[in-house]
Design goal:
Layout (H helix, E strand, L loop, with lengths): L7 H11 L3 H4 L9 H28 L3 E3 L2 E3 L2 H12 L18 H14 L1 H20 L2 H12 L3 E6 L15 E4 L5 E11 L8 E10 L10 E6 L1 E3 L5 E4 L2 E6 L10 E6 L5 E6 L5 H37 L22 H33 L3 H36 L11 H8 L9 H11 L3 H21 L6 H23 L3 H5 L1 H29 L4 H21 L3 H9 L14
Parallel strand pairs: 3-6, 4-6
Antiparallel strand pairs: 1-2, 4-5, 5-11, 5-12, 6-7, 7-12, 8-9, 10-11
Bound molecules: flavin-adenine dinucleotide.
Length: about 600
């Protein structure tokens, strides 16, 4: 039976045929990760996702963690799966060898995470948070902090969290009130309340490393007064043994629509004498450290959304092949046998839309991950800085586009199932609920949109945006060599030019009304970028088909061309009216008085 979790052929296509991950194996940091080792890791990930993560997915959803007698209880399978995940080396994937890591390319780790996320995203969330926290510590932590905590995080003995949000400070982190009081021994005492902290308490590991944003007393107001602290749940003695419980307590669990296997916690820091914490890096730079981290975390959120879109698509595809219902519209004989629903054109429409969103989103997030690798290990300074510039620009798109359209794909997956899709008997209902989080956390859709239009397309006088446009036009030009792609090359080149002109006009007059349409801008640019990535995939598919591949590959590449055609004929044209309204600086909702609502 074909996997309903993730299409391995597509992952291999993206890694090797589109993104040239082979080139990363020649870099010193990744020299142990050639095709064979990467294939072995992906094989193991697929097997564990199928036999270990996926079977617990529904159970974790139906038996969400509880807060009883001051402690969290949760199904043991979540912890057992994560233990095996860590034993197989996945938790340590990104870390430096010095700390027990295996220095895997970020792109490959992203592909692996996609497999686990598609199988069970609420279990995978603990791993994602730990990997991200470890990464942050590795980049900004002191030698002593790393020695004490990093190896134990990379081995999965301790998990990590990111403690940003407070009841009054969600999107607006400048309003954080948690405070940090310096102590004579160099440590700080942290006091405040955090909310929505994923994995803030759990019944899996003996310790949790909280990375906490707080203000040192008398720090300047706003974002420039926020610092980052390492606050362990349990203090670690000099000999490595676990010491006293720190003054961090669980005030309660939050009950959610999806992602139920991940605990969402309200944490109180300093109910007694203040939680012991240590400053990471320099004072007042916490948010800038966090933002560096967020480039990765946001791409990972987009990747999770893409993974859920992929698995929803595969489930509905399998269902459409099995479910027999009705006859072709032209069939006159009521006694003729009914057909599988995949024969109905409207079901095919919903399947190809899902394929275009899901595989487009996966391509986008792996492309962004490839930029992370290039930024870190590119061979020249120019390659590294160029990748960083493009990554900065595309991060809000890589987070938001999959979150929006992956969810739309999941809605179509339910629709393909008809009434069964709306029941708990089929997995697509949970997949949709789980995916609904992704446009919210790690910066909402609206915040990503403001970041893109208000900051990123304006960076360096628009240089990053102009570079992106040049790359897209380059692909359009190259694609013209394939007669079947000329129609799409022209469409991409025209839309990029319109987007370029509109963006230049908006940039020159960035008013509040312009920013009021930022979400439309984000959606427009997302569609243009994904159209570009579809055209890139189509070029690879055309070249591969010309080399006369074997039958299964012929179907695979033909499927890529069909999805590209769908995207260019039915999706990219949606940007036309958006560009019209953006260029006209429409003020429909901006101009509405509050009592008009
Ligand atoms: C399941 C879950 C897990 C989470 N995990 C974590 C975690 O591990 N660590 C952590 O620190 N946080 C976490 N969060 C918090 C999450 O990052 C915040 O919920 C999110 O940033 C939004 O903040 P908020 O909920 O306060 O909404 P608000 O900021 O109140 O936003 C409400 C609405 O107003 C819009 N809005 C707000 N400000 C603006 C503006 N300036 N311009 C335009 N629109 C605006 C938003 O886009 C949104 O639509 C999690 C949240 C959830 C639901």
């Amino acid at each position: 039976m074909e996997s309903r979790i993730m299409n391995r052929r597509d992952l291999d296509f993206l890694l090797y045929e589109l993104l040239d991950v082979d080139a990363l194996s020649s870099r010193v940091r990744h020299e142990d990760h050639g095709r064979d080792t990467i294939a072995a890791m992906l094989d193991t990930a697929e097997a564990m996702a199928e036999t270990d993560f996926a079977p617990n997915n529904r159970k974790a959803d139906e038996n969400e963690p509880r807060f009883e007698n001051g402690r969290v209880t949760q199904i043991p399978e979540t912890g057992e799966s994560l233990r095996r995940f860590s034993e197989a080396g996945f938790m340590a994937a990104l870390g430096d060898e010095r700390w027990g890591g295996i220095q895997m390319p970020f792109t490959v780790n992203m592909a692996i995470n996609a497999v686990f996320s598609a199988a069970n995203i609420s279990t995978m969330a603990y791993a994602f948070l730990t990997q991200s926290a470890a990464n942050m510590l590795e980049t900004f932590g002191s030698g002593e902090q790393k020695e004490r905590f990093l190896p134990r995080m990379l081995s999965g003995e301790f998990f990590g969290t990111m403690c940003l949000t407070e009841p009054q400070a969600g999107s607006s982190l400048s309003d954080i009130r948690t405070t940090a009081a310096p102590q004579a021994d160099g440590s700080y005492r942290i006091t405040g309340n955090k909310i929505y902290i994923s994995g803030g308490e759990q019944a899996i590991t003996s310790n949790i490393v909280h990375l906490v944003l707080a203000r040192i007393k008398d720090a300047p107001p706003g974002v420039k007064g926020i610092s980052l602290f390492l606050v362990p749940k349990v203090l670690v003695n000099d000999d490595g043994s676990l010491g006293e419980r720190n003054d961090v307590s669980l005030a309660g669990l939050i009950h959610k629509m999806g992602y139920r296997g991940t605990t969402s916690t309200m944490l109180n820091f300093g109910e007694r004498e203040g939680a012991v914490g240590w400053l990471i890096g320099e004072p007042h730079k916490g948010l800038s450290y966090m933002f560096q981290m967020m480039n990765e975390a946001r791409v990972i959120v987009g990747n999770g959304a893409a993974a859920l879109a992929c698995t929803g698509y595969l489930h509905s595809l399998a269902y459409a092949r099995e479910r027999v219902q009705g006859r072709p519209a032209a069939a006159k004989d009521p006694t003729a046998p009914p057909v599988p629903i995949i024969k109905h054109p409207d079901v095919r429409r919903m399947l190809v839309a899902q394929k275009a969103y899901a595989e487009g989103a996966l391509a986008l997030t792996l492309f962004a991950a490839r930029l992370v690798d290039e930024w870190r290990t590119g061979e020249t300074e120019e390659a590294r800085s160029g990748a960083h510039q493009l990554l900065e620009l595309l991060t809000p798109v890589a987070k938001s586009w999959p979150s929006q359209w992956g969810l739309e794909a999941n809605s179509l997956a339910i629709q393909v199932h008809g009434g069964y899709g709306y029941t708990r008997e089929y997995p697509v209902e949970q997949i949709y609920r789980d995916n609904r989080l992704n446009p919210i956390h790690e910066g909402t859709h609206g915040i990503q949109a403001l970041d893109l239009l208000g900051r990123k397309v304006r960076m360096d006088d628009g240089a990053a945006f102009e570079r992106l446009c040049a790359l897209m036009v380059e692909t359009a030009d190259a694609a013209r060599a394939h007669p079947g792609l000329v129609e799409f090359s022209d469409a991409l080149a025209d839309t990029v030019e319109r987007a370029r002109l509109t963006t230049a006009a908006l940039r020159a007059n960035m008013t509040e009304t312009v920013l009021g349409n930022a979400s439309v801008y984000l959606e427009m640019l997302g569609h243009v970028v994904v159209a570009w990535l579809w055209l890139k995939q189509a070029v690879v598919a055309c070249d591969a088909l010309a080399a006369d591949p074997h039958e299964a590959d012929r179907a695979f590449y033909a499927g890529k061309l069909a999805a590209c055609r769908y995207f260019f004929r039915w999706e990219l044209p949606k940007t036309g009216p958006q560009l019209d309204r953006l260029a006209a600086v429409d003020d429909t909702w901006f101009a509405m008085a509050e009592d008009h609502f």
